Input
Amino acid sequence: MSTQQTTKPADARDGSGSEYLAFTLGSEEYGIDILKVQEIRGYEAVTRIANAPEFIKGVINLRGIIIPVVDMRIKFKLGTPTYDQFTVVIILNIGGRIMGMVVDSVSDVTTLTPDQVKPAPEMGTAFNSDYLMGLGTVDERMLILIDIDRLMSSSEMGLIDRMAA
Amino acid sequence: MAKTILAVDDSSSLRQMVAFSLKAAGYQVVEAVDGQDGLDKAKQQTVDLVLTDQNMPKMDGLTLIKSLRGLPTYAKVPILMLTTESSDEMKSKGRAAGANGWLVKPFDPQRLIEVVKKVIG
Amino acid sequence: MTIDISQFYQVFFDEAEELLAEKERLLLAVDIAAPDAEDLNAIFRTAHSIKGGASTFGLNDMSEVTHVLESLLDRIRKGEMSLTSQHVDAFLAAKDILKMQLDGHRHGASVDQEAVANVRMMLHDLSEGVIVAAHQPTVPSFLHAEQKQEVREGAHRYKIELPDIPQRDVNALVDELGLLGRVSVTPLAGGRSALIIMTHEGLDDIVAICSFVLNPEDLKIFEAPPLTPEQRAIEALERARIEDEQGYGFFDPNEPAENTQAELSNDERGYGFFQPIEQIRLEAGIVPETPQPAVAVQSRPEALDAADAAAEKKAAKKAADAAHAHAEAGSIRVSIEKVDQLINLVGELVITQAMIEQRSDGLDPMVHQRLLASVSQLTRNTRDLQEAVMSIRMMPMDFVFSRFPRMVRDLAGKLGKKVDFITNGAATELDKGLIERIVDPLTHLVRNSIDHGIEMPAARVAAGKSESGRLFLSAAHQGGNIVIEVADDGGGLNRERILAKARENGLPVSENMSDAEVWQLIFAPGFSTAEIVTDVSGRGVGMDVVKRNITQMGGTIDIRSAKGFGTTILISLPLTLAILDGMSIRCGDEIYILPLGFVVESLQPARADVKDIAGQGRVVKVRGEYLPLVPLHQMFNIAPRFTDPAEGILVILETEGRKAALFVDELVGQQQVVVKNLESNYRKVAGISGATILGDGGVALILDVAALLRSSRQLTDDTVVS
Output
């Protein structure tokens, strides 16, 4: 079975294309559904959470609410995690939960039409193919499209309590 | 110019529904939670129409109607009873107390507005 | 224009809930031998109001139950029937059924239809004892007095031929079916009757209702053709004739223009007038909007003008009074979301104000005197606002306490025990969110006391106690907390049995454990020393859930007990979820907050007072007792500034009968903090109970003291060298 299940972002209203936020991690460019992105901020001091995995940097105060910040570079071993004035945190809204994701840099918002998206390969990418929606090609660029919803809600990220207390 | 209706009922859900419906139809509404409250509010301002429930604490509907009719300003103001049954007993008591008519509960908002319009326009 | 009345459902649900509670309260309090007339009226009114609302909002199942209830209560309050304890029991059962139905509508909870049917039968049986004068077989075929339903297009007309059944069953059927639509009775041959029903409801509902009284094989239902206009007119005239006979009628001169078909009587429409409409309007001084055929109005222009002027003056006055007049007596309903939002915003304000305070700290007071004075004014204002807003969500404990009298009565009765239930401090207030969460744990504790604590009357007397056991529930404010006490004068907890059971379950115990520690064992999961597991309070899995609930609310639970004398459970809860008095401490680079309520004192120990227990951690001697030393840096994997307790600070904490010394680098300060929870966007973190935003905008985590102390037990043993 070679067909990949792709989960298209929900905004393909007119069928003409979907918008992705493109960002870099290490040497690759990735894309996520723009609708899941709430805002983009610089990196600021994070309050560490005791005994949490290394890639969960801690929590920050986002205008009065406390949200966790994860560093994808640490989680998926991509590039070198540095924290300077160029470091960017993408604030995501996944089903009402707000969280921050540290990346190397943010490029732009790109619209991809369905024919610009090819199925993702089974292996060869840092991310488990379960979380990949496909590969987007536009001009010379190739964006690895991530199902950020699925990824962030997954148990391997450990951001959500699976069991009720 | 908008007419004012006094709605007297101890059930807040019913009272709110009556108030809302009448306001939507362009009337002004004063609410009272029992007979005594109704009498007090009626004295504070003379309204164009009184709608009153029967079974209420402190002062029931029939007593309210009789009291209102005892006030010079309310001798001729239309008063309608909100009642749960159209029994003969209800009718005779209501008429004797001085009510002008009755409306059976439950009623839907349309009917309420229809009746009110008939009486005060 | 259609008006959607479903927006009032919520209001009615709340109202019905209050009415049901009121009804129960009144029923429990009424003196069956000599009932107070006003009490009976009040009970009647609760049923009447619920019925009115239920019918208005289409909650037919509830209006059916309240219908019979209401007629019974009406007869009782009029003195036609005397109140007996069977009545009270049936009415209480009806209240339970109504509550169940209400919850069904409100939350989608399931409704036990069999229980509903049982209660209805019970009520019907009770009403059987009285002759119902309204339904006679000779009543001509016109509309039944009880009907309230407007029958619109699409209604069906069914004819139900009844077999030879007693008149009261016919009446019961008429009553029940009357709630589905319009029912009339016509006589059949052989003394039997047929019912004609005009309804929108399905045949299934009709059959279901008939099955109460009839056997399925006796049920003959036909669909009858709707009445022609002529037939309806005949019905209407028949009705009018009868009304006339009784001395008054209802006629509405405005109608003929609108209704070319047979005139619908006012009864059918559900309203009517005692005089012609124009007369009412004329006397009221209302100018007709369209020219009326009736001449009276036109021929008195002066009267009209005067009325006009008077009406105008009234309007002006009304406009002025409008705002004033709309204020309802005493209180308003506000949605919880709005209140929560308000509280959040005030919380933000507190933080911002703290930031301002912090930043103005560094300013020269001489140069910035006026600014600093304003800042302290701002601080005062903010604190006052905060207090006022927090109090909005505060509700009296009575909300919780009032549930218990009924439960205690039922439960004690079921178990054959006698229990006096006493409450104290019902006016003590607690945050609404906590009130809702404390109900289940308290219920469990109360049931436990009655089930396991208080002995059977005979056993009590034999032990020299009063026959009735005493169950005491109280609430009081203490510092920033509310302390709730559940006490009984029963047999107390059995220490030996608990220790034995704990050993059985493999829990680490020793004979030297203090009573307080032994009692805490019952909170372990799966713990129950009850010899007979009654279905009343279950297998003791309740106690660990109770404890978990309390801890999740940020509270603690302590037990005191003495054999033969009784047991007291003390629950302490923070007064609000949102604001906490905290002590901030630093460990390494990180700042944490300790809820002040758990802090006993802080000190720097002498090196000699710190002792190592081989391989199990350290203890410290404080005021003659040895307490486990909990190194925060170790628990949380922080690189501390000090590893030697004698160089750092120990904060002595106490909770749940345990004490420990938390080892940190330094104390930073004390402040009120706004608690934010982590779980909304993240997850529960072990050892952390929440987070807060500091004056500088950064986040500090709040330590879960109880959890820390519990896990510290794993680090140390309780065999202590003294």
Q: What stands out?
A: Chain A has one domain: 18-153.
